[in-house]
Every structure is written in structure tokens, then in C-alpha cells.
Amino acid sequence: MRKPIIAGNWKLNKNIKETVELLEALKKELADIKDVDIAVCPVFTSLVDAAKAIEGSNIKLGAQNVYWEDSGAYTGEIAPAMLKEIGCTYVIIGHSERRTYFGESNETVNKKIKAALVHGLLPIMCIGERLEEREQGKTFAVLEDHLQGGLEGISADDMLKIIIAYEPVWAIGTGKTATPQQAQEAHKYIRDFLKKKYNEDIAAAVRIQYGGSVKPANISELMAQEDLDGALVGGASLKVDSFSQIVKGARK
Ligand code: PGA
Fold this sequence. Notes:
Elements: E1 5-9, H1 16-30, E2 37-41, H2 47-54, E3 59-63, H3 80-85, E4 90-93, H4 96-101, H5 106-118, E5 122-127, H6 131-135, H7 139-150, H8 156-159, E6 163-166, H9 180-197, H10 200-205, E7 208-211, H11 216-223, E8 230-233, H12 240-249
Parallel strand pairs: 1-2, 1-8, 2-3, 3-4, 4-5, 5-6, 6-7, 7-8
The structure holds 2-phosphoglycolic acid.
The site of 2-phosphoglycolic acid has 13 residues, from strand 8.
């Protein structure tokens, strides 16, 4: 049985004070939840205070990005060990916004995943097609390309530490959620890919999140799909009510 995981991708939102306030409220609201893994991913500058705020709770911390080098002349970058040092468990890698606005490619995603794993961070690897790719019938081809490139050279043991987030780009921040059937179809494709690349056991164990306009109103029908193991939540993760309801709605 795969344990559901709900992660909040806060993107470029909330200063330190707002971060701590939201986390204090979430801690209270979600204190009883044991059957869903919960993570929040605030901006870099809030991570230290966020780690303190959630200490001892059932909420884990993630970062939204990482670089693959340990140190050196890489102005503006953050190393995996630095995220680990301040208490991060997860790191989002290859979000479509990073691919679109910051030139990330399968190659950089792959380097980041490998570096994160070396330092004991659990990668949340984002993949997904754009609207025109879906309309041209290229959804599976895009998923295959993202999976093949992103997971190049990843061992079976390491694969068990990776979470895949299927995020159709056309559903992110648009209010237009994929239908449960569209999501399931993509998730099944991803699990079949893992079966072929690794084996049945690995494919059955890896958690695949859906992301793209997840809300309290649609989490249950999404979670009812066989291959859907949680959600990566953007907009609705910024408020205590909506994020808590999504976490509670993710209980299978
Ligand atoms: P959204 O973002 O929930 O606001 O659509 C999801 C994401 O980008 O991870």
C-alpha cells in the first residue's frame, strides 16, 4: 500500500512571518493526521524558520529547487547538503515553471535528482505536457521523454526514494483540473514505464502525485483513481482551510 502524500508548493509567496503563521495554523489543524504524508515547500529564505515552526509535528519540509554542485563559483545557487542541514526532507525538481522560465531541461533535472539523492533529500520530480502537446496527441511521448531523461542512470534502490508529480502544464494555476480519468490515464502510463524500466515491485511502490488546480472540491475524486497517490498543490496550499481539507480528503 502506498501512503498518500500531499505537498504544498508555495512558489514565490509568503514572507517569514506569513510562513510561520500558516504553519502554526496547519500544525493545529492537521495534528491528528497519520495516514497521509504532509509536506510544505516555502521559499528558500523562510526555510530555517519553517523548520523551527514544524519541529516535532507531522509536517515535513521541502525546498522548491536545488543545484547539483556541493559548493563553488555558482552565484545564486543552493547545494543539496545546505537544504539537508536546515531540515529539508524533500525537494521539488523540474517544476514546469522552472522548465519554462529558467531553462531547466531533462538533463539538469537528472543532475539535480542525483545530487539530491546523494545527500539524502527525497526528490519530487515534476513532469507533464503542455496544452498544445496534449492537443497534438503527444502526451505520452512527452511523459516518456521526461521520464527517460530525468531518470537516466537512476538505480532501482534510488527510484524508491523518488516521488513523481504528474502536472499537466495546462492545469497549473488555471483552475482547469485534469479529469480523474485523464489523470489516471497518465499515472498508469507512468507506472507502466517504471515497470518496464525497473520491475513490477518498484512500479507498485513509487508514489505518483497529481498536480494542477487541486482543490478541496476535487481531491477525493482524484484520489479515488488507482494510480494516484497524492497531490502537489500550488494555489490551494497557501490557505489553512483549503490545504487542510485537501490533506484530509487524500485519506484513502
Ligand atoms: P496549482 O499549482 O495547484 O496552483 O495549479 C500546482 C503546481 O504548480 O505544483
